[in-house]
């Protein structure tokens, strides 16, 4: 059941991310729903599930863009590793924590992809537009991640799936 | 427990490393598979989004729809008259070309396609359409709307195709300024703060200086885009860094941020057997992307 829910949420996030028109005011940044889902799993699931969530969201994101396979998956995996390392120290259910990790994740992922994709020609933008777009991604991550986390949590609770709570050290 | 977790992370890391080092044929198949699986779902999403927009339009008022209907009826009459006038010119042109012994040009076919998704990462100016190899769409075909050129097809799978938009820096188009006949090369420069795509034309002859508002059309020199397709209008003209040529900023006529339907231009005859063979073979020729 949990796997089915994960696949459904993956589809929902992929659909929202690719069909949503780009936000002109944020330099054409797309709302990073897949990253939001990855942050949700990293904050609130057991480590193996968080890992699979990061890998799957990254792979789907790569498949739905011209990015070489594995780039987004590597970025999401590193972000999940960082969140898993610090999550015992933060309020994982609070929207501010989710927003902060969403913004941080969006900024680092967008920056990493910018450098990784430079040889393929994706970084040949005017410098001002690059900075503006990075800021746009950060704001989009800040806004979308708490929403993605709330939706995913609501859906799991609605279906009666238990929520994993990590014991604090 | 800690050891198991460490093993898991090492395994995941190795998997990603493997993915990053897979030969392009392997990743192409994986990408194809994922896109083909997600394509029907994205069709569903696109239909839902369209329905939502239509409902919102109805909610805004039927008066607006009636006015739009009247305007479109008038436009239809105008266009019919133009088509009738152009048919005579086309016949005359055909007769003259035949007398001069020119090779007969094949009229391009239009394949209508729905936009089912946009690039998920955001560093590419690209979108995906719900037509692919099975519909005679191939890499490097021009994509247009009623307003003008939009871009070209890139990676194509059996049921979907990726369209590289004019605003992407990787998209280069051989162009001509319609009024002066001066040639140039157009490349994408992203989007303006208002969301409009911005392009730049380089290497314009200084003796054929364009003016603000001049139309820019495809030159047909690059083999991908047929000549004479409207791209947009010149917004600014300046001297390039070398001082030898002029450069110009161009705003595409088509609104690239709000595309719903596009047309792929093809001159090929459709042969299902050939296309099924192409799909089955999955040869390396199909992929046009990085």
Low-confidence stretches of chain B: 281-290
Low-confidence stretches of chain A: none
* Total of domains of chain A: 1
User: How large a portion of the residues of chain A is in β-strands, by DSSP E?
Assistant: under 5%
C-alpha Rg of chain A, in Å? 15 Å
Instruction: Quote the average pLDDT of chain A.
Output: 84
What quaternary form is this?
heterodimer
Instruction: Note the run of SSEs of chain B as H and E.
Output: HHHEEEEEEEEEEEEH
Main sheet specs of chain A: none
Strand tally of chain A, please? 0
β-sheet strand percentage of chain B: 25-35%
**Helix/strand structural class of chain A:** mainly alpha
Order of helices and strands of chain A: HHHHHH
The top level CATH class name of the domain at 172-258 in chain B? Mainly Beta
Keywords:
heterodimer; A: 169 residues; mainly alpha; 6 helices; 0% strand; B: 290 residues; alpha+beta; Thrombin, subunit H; six-stranded antiparallel barrel; 12 strands; 28% strand; globular; disordered C terminus
Provide structural commentary.
The complex is a heterodimer of chains A (169) and B (290). By secondary structure, chain A is mainly alpha-helical. Chain A has helices at 2-19, 33-44, 47-63, 71-86, 95-117, 127-158. The longest helix of chain A is centred in the last third of the chain and has 32 residues, at 127-158. Among the domains of chain B are: 61-105; 172-258, Thrombin, subunit H (Beta Barrel). In chain B, a hairpin with a 5-residue loop joins strand 6 (172-177) and strand 7 (183-191). The longest helix of chain B is centred in the first third of the chain and has 39 residues, at 62-100. The relative contact order of chain B is 0.13. The model of chain B is unreliable at 281-290 (pLDDT under 50). At the A-B interface, helix 1, helix 3, helix 4, helix 5 and helix 6 of A face helix 1, helix 2, strand 1 and strand 7 of B.
């Amino acid at each position: 059941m949990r796997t089915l829910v994960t696949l459904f949420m993956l589809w929902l996030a992929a659909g929202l991310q690719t069909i949503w028109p780009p936000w002109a005011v944020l330099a054409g940044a797309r709302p990073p729903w897949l990253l939001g889902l990855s942050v949700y799993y990293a904050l609130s699931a057991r480590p193996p599930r968080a890992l699979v969530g990061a890998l799957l969201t990254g792979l789907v994101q790569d498949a739905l863009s011209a990015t070489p396979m594995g780039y987004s998956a590597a970025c999401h995996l590193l972000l999940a590793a960082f969140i898993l390392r610090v999550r015992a120290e933060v309020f994982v259910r609070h929207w501010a924590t989710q927003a902060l990790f969403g913004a941080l994740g969006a900024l680092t992922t967008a920056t990493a992809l910018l450098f990784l994709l430079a040889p393929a020609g994706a970084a040949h933008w005017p410098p001002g537009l690059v900075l503006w777009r990075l800021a746009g991604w950060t704001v989009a991550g800040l806004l979308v991640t708490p929403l993605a986390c709330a939706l995913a949590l609501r859906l799991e609770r609605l279906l009666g799936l238990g929520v994993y709570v990590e014991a604090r050290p | 427990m800690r050891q198991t977790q460490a093993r898991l992370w090492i395994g995941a890391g190795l998997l990603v490393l493997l993915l990053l080092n897979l030969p392009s044929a392997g990743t192409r198949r994986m990408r194809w598979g994922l896109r083909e699986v997600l394509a029907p779902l994205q069709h569903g999403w696109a239909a839902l989004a369209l329905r939502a927009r239509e409902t919102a339009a109805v909610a805004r008022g039927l008066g607006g729809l009636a006015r739009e209907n009247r305007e479109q009826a008038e436009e239809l009459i105008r266009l019919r008259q133009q088509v009738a006038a152009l048919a005579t010119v086309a016949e005359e042109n055909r007769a003259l070309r035949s007398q001069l012994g020119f090779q007969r040009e094949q009229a391009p076919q239009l394949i209508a396609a729905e936009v089912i998704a946009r690039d998920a990462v955001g560093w590419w100016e690209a979108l995906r359409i719900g037509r692919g190899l099975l519909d005679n769409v191939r890499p490097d075909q021009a994509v247009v709307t009623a307003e003008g050129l939009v871009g070209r097809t890139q990676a194509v799978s059996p049921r979907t195709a990726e369209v590289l938009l004019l605003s992407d820096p990787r998209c280069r188009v051989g162009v001509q300024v319609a009024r002066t006949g001066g040639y140039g090369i157009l490349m994408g420069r992203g989007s303006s703060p208002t969301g409009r795509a911005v392009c730049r034309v380089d290497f314009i002859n200084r003796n054929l200086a364009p003016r603000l508002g001049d139309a820019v059309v495809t030159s047909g020199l690059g083999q991908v885009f047929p000549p004479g397709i409207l791209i947009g209008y010149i917004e600014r003209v300046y001297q390039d860094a070398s001082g030898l040529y002029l450069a110009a900023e161009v705003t595409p006529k088509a609104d690239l941020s709000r595309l719903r339907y596009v047309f792929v231009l093809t001159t090929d005859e459709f042969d299902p057997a050939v296309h099924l063979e192409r799909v089955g073979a999955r040869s390396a020729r199909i992929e046009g992307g990085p």
